[in-house]
Amino acid sequence: MTSESLSDNEIELVKNSWDVVKKDGKHFGNQLFIDFFTKHPTYQQNFKSLANIPLSELGSSKRLLAHTTGVMYALTSLVDNLDDTEVVVEMLAKTGDNHRRRRLDVRAFDELGVVFIDLLRTALGANVLDGQLLNAWSKTYSLIVAHIKTAFQ
Ligand code: HEM
Known about the structure:
The protein has helices spanning 8-23, 25-39, 55-58, 62-80, 85-100, 107-124, 131-150. By secondary structure, the protein is an all-alpha fold. The protein has one domain (8-150): Globin-like, CATH 1.10.490. The radius of gyration is 15 Å and the shape is globular. Protoporphyrin IX containing FE binds at residues 43, 46-49, 67, 70-71, 74-75, 95, 98-99, 102, 104, 108-109, 112, 144. Protoporphyrin IX containing FE (HEM) binds at residues 43, 46-49, 67, 70-71, 74-75, 95, 98-99, 102, 104, 108-109, 112, 144.
């Protein structure tokens, strides 16, 4: 485990800011994958149902929405349970296992993280995603990825 654990205050900050993001969760989730595929086009090919949809049409695709809705629910469950590390670890072991079977390049998780934090900055505002909140989210994402990667080892 490389990631540091989160303090109660950091968990509170992450939960409160995720409540804001969730209000426009469909847009956030779709934009996350559009930004991810724009920056790293090869990863779109990992998604069988999305691989052949041109980027310009992805935003209005119900297939993308179906996928991002699942990812957003998964992220919400993780955020909701941040104060119970054992539950989070169990959830991520499953996510890690499902993703390992897909033969993904493990670096994709770090690359998605960069896109995720950039999008959080856009969604919340650079003045809101300040030092403390940014640090709390970086720790949260690192924790998620560290546990997913365990399944790849
Ligand atoms: C924090 C990171 C991530 C979370 C929480 C997450 C979560 C999920 C969830 C909940 C699903 C649907 C349920 C399932 O089939 O397992 C899914 C599917 C999938 N994920 Fe991820 N994912 C993450 C990162 C990634 C990354 C970096 C990739 C790399 C390209 C990826 C590739 C896929 C693929 C290919 C599918 C199957 C899509 C389909 O054909 O339906 N995921 N993910």
